[in-house]
């Protein structure tokens, strides 16, 4: 097999077009991809098969890029990756060349020869001096993956007799909200229907980190972790600070919830014998916006919860149970402390904490307020459009709490941001089981031919666009939407429902100033593996 497009040269060209998320560079980047792809003879002969699609209602005016190489028959494979990258601010004095790998390389070597102190910096110096690593913002995450996909697409396009079809799809905004992949999922379904295509496999080309010999980085991932931002709107009983026993301080309640949630084994997904990432609190704040000597009445927590097997409804049920136990314990503690001070009639003595979900709160409020849904929609429309989703969710939950007429102490559990479903190739599904067998056989055979071993990992532990190309339970999506206050965070189009894997480049220190891709694998081996899988699924 000969691949005429140099994945290294394409990577450098793509890196030089800075495309930091939510910037003008990201908006303009599709033009770079159109230029690179437009050089292929296939698209010079068939320009109609190379196009962009604007992302709906996107304030940044971004587009997804599609390149379809057609052959005989309906079978199809999708090669996909994101083109946005994180900021280069952490490059310090090298920020001016962070997007120019060839200019950056000697600068980093010179810097590290003088200033390398940590093990990571000494490893980076060794790597860069070896000539086997290419540095630059986005070189690893994930312009090298896009380049591998383009090289495999070029190889397929150059075949005189093509069986099947290959679609290259480059999407925006993976680093923040995955708006590109969220739109690409229904577009894949629509394209298949319009063109009579049968998508057999989606290969996501995202990167992997490996600080060792590459054995961990040279891997195929059969699924991806999901992400939920679990929120807790916490209500206490406010009082004058001089009469503190007459209240229940919400900061104490919120702190007890944080203590219960942080690193909780009971809240960690351990499905299929895989130990997941434990939850961690990303935000804890009381919602009082001014100073006086009244204790704060309300607080807001946001907790990062990663999943690989649990559905969202189960996650919420577990957090609700944990919150109830934590608040019960908190009130017991306050009662004991009041009694130690000689007080047996404190506010804590007469309080029973209420814990409910956002969906529960919505139903209670509907019983109190006529036309509540219209009023809630109007309130949402009047909020500052620049508010982030968690802050917007706090405002919406607070409004709904007021409408319900309920009193604290209490906690309302929900989801405060965009949900990423966990997905995996399910061996119980005949179509996915067949795809899994073919992936394994192809990578084993091609790996042996190329002299590499491709390890198999069940879960890509970083958040990825695989969430939007695999399969998700529609009932679970409904449960997420019902407990997500901000309509902008709802899932309006389900994932594509296709067999999906991740096979991408590997390197080190991505998102850091020493980000670098391992060249021999990323630019040599990976495009050939992607081509082999493409050919196998189009037979």
TrEMBL record:
<dbReference type="InterPro" id="IPR012166">
    <property type="entry name" value="Uncharacterised_RocB"/>
</dbReference>
<dbReference type="InterPro" id="IPR002933">
    <property type="entry name" value="Peptidase_M20"/>
</dbReference>
<dbReference type="GO" id="GO:0016787">
    <property type="term" value="F:hydrolase activity"/>
</dbReference>
<dbReference type="Pfam" id="PF01546">
    <property type="entry name" value="Peptidase_M20"/>
</dbReference>
<dbReference type="InterPro" id="IPR050072">
    <property type="entry name" value="Peptidase_M20A"/>
</dbReference>
<protein>
    <submittedName>
        <fullName>Arginine utilization protein RocB, putative</fullName>
    </submittedName>
</protein>
